[in-house]
Please model this.
Amino acid sequence: MELTFKPNTAEQLQNKKKIKDPIITGAIITIWALLLIFILYPVSKAMITSIMVDGRVSFEHYIYLFKQAWLRKTFINSMKLAVTVATISTFIGYCYAYALNRTDIPCKGFFQQMSLLPIISPPFMFALSVILLLGKNGLITKKLLGLTSFNIYGFDGLVLVQSLSMFPIAYLVLDGVLKAISPDLEDSAFNLGATRRQVFRTVTMPLSLQGIASAWLLVFVTSLADFGNPVILGGDFDVLSVQAYLQVTGMFNTPRGAAIAFVLLAPALIAFYLQRNLSKKSVVTVTGKPSTSGLMKAHPLAKYILTILLSLISLMTLAFYGVIIYGCFVKLWGYNWSLTLENFAYAWDVGKLSIKATVIMAGIATVIAGLLSMVIAFLMVRKEFFGKKAMGFVTLLGYAIPGTLVGIGYILAFNTPPLLLTGTMWIIICCFVFREIPVGIESGVATLNQIDPAIEEASLNLGADTAYTFTHVTLPLIKPAFFASLAYSFVRSMTAVSAVIFLVTARWNHLTALVLAQTEIMRLGPASVLSFFTIIIVFIVFALIRLSLGQISYTAPRIGG
Model:
C-alpha cells in the first residue's frame, strides 16, 4: 500500500503566500503609494519647512524655541499636564477594570457604559461642560454658590477634563489585561493562606504592571497631543499643541509652528514606541483548564470604596452631559437663566451647512477607513511581502503623530499642484482616513489571528480568486472587527479637531470647528446645541451600523494595542 503525505494546511498556506498574485501585488503597491502620499509626505514637508530659512538649511527656529524662556515653560507645561493626566487616568481606569472584573459590585452594566461614554463625545465637550458648571458664570459657582472669583481655567481645569475624558483609554487596555489573568493564580494564593491584600500585592498587581505602563504611556501620548481642551480651558497655562496652532494661524509663522509641532512629536513618539513594545509582551496565565470565578477577591471595604469612586465618576460624567442638554435651552448663560428654543434656531441657522458637510465627510471617511484597514490587516496576517514590517510601522505612525503636526503637514503638502487638495473636502477626508486606520488594523489583525486560515484556503482551492475570497469569506468572518473599525472611524471623524482646525474652509467647515468658534465668543447656548447634535448623530449612526452588519452589541475598539 502506497502512502502519500500531503502538506498540512499551514504548509499549504505558506506556499500560497509565496505565489505571486497580481491582485495582492496591486493592493500592496496601491497601499504603499497612499501611505507615502498621505502620511510620510506631509510629515517630511513639515520637517523641511521647519529647517529651511531663506532657501538654506538652518535650525534657527529650533534654537529660538529653546532660547525663549516662555517656550521652554510651555514645553514643561505640556509634559507636566501629560504626566499628571496619565497618572490620574490610569489610576481611575485600573479601579474601573478591577472593580468590574474582580468584585461583585452592583450595577456593573451601568458603570461599564459610563466608562465608555466619554469616548463618543467631542474632545472638548467636557471643557465646555466645566465652563457651564464651574466657570465664572457657572451653574454651581455663580448661581448656586454665589462665587464670583472662582477660576477653573488653567492647569487644574485641564487635569479635571482630560482625566475624565481620557480614563476610558486606560480602562480599555486594563480591562483586557485583568480579563487575561487567570483567577486560578489568585485562588492558589488564597489556598496557601495569603490575605486579600497580599494576593493583590504579590499576584494581581505584578501581573498587571505591563498593562498599567502601557495604559499610562497611551494616555500620556493622547494628553500631549490634545488641542481642543487646552484651547478652550487653558487660560494662562500654555501648551505646545496650542502654541503651534497660534504660530500658524495667529502669527502666520508656519515654519516656527512646524518646529513647535516637531518638538511635541519627540516625546510622543518615544512614549508610543514604549507603549507598543509593552503591549506586545505578555505573561501567559491562561492554561486552558477550567477556572473558578475571579469575583470577590477584593476586601469588602475595598469593594465599597470602589463602588463609591465609580459612582462619583459616573455621576460627574452624567452631570457634564446633563449640563450640555440644559445649556441648550438657557437664553444667556450666567445672566439670563430663562428657558428658550432660540439656541436651537440660531445653531441650526449657522450650523446646518457644517452639519451636512461633517456627516458627508465622516461618512465617506468611515467607509474608506473601514475597508482599507481590513485590507491592510488581511495583508499583514495572511501574506508575506517585502516591506511588511515597514508598512505596519507607517500605518501606526498616523496615530502616534500629534494632530497639530498632521494639520500643518497637510496644509503644506497639498497646497500646490499636482496634489492641490486645499479647500476641498478631500483633504479633510484623507486626513480622517489615515489618522483612523491604525485602530481598525489592530482590531482586524487580532480577529484574523483567531481565524483558521484553512477556511480561506478552501475557497482558493475551489477556484475563487483572492478578491472574491476576501469579500465573501474573510470580511464576513471579521465582521466584529469591521464594525469596531467603522464605529471608531465615524466617532473620530465627527469629533476630530486638532488636525481639522487647519483644513476647514467656509464651504467645508466641521462641527467641532464651529463649536470651538461659538465657545470662543462665549455663545455657550449654541455651542451646547451643536455638541448635542454631534452626540445624537453619533448614536444614530452607531445604530445604523449595528443594523446593517447584524450586530447586537457594540464593543469599543482597543486603542493603541
